[in-house]
Amino acid sequence: MVPPAAVAVADTPSQPVAEAEAEAEAEAEAEAEAEAEAEAEAEAEAEAEAEAEAEAEAEAEAP
Known about the structure:
Elements: H1 4-11, H2 15-61
């Protein structure tokens, strides 16, 4: 049987592992933030295109 103290030590992640996990989490957050930013930019671009299209249509209809 394994002594309880040995199990507690084995279950505790080592410092490098904890640092790697934190780094991976930070990278994932940064990636998600970049994706959200790109999505917002694409939406703004689509909105600007729709606006320009509406203006062009209005000009074409004007006498």
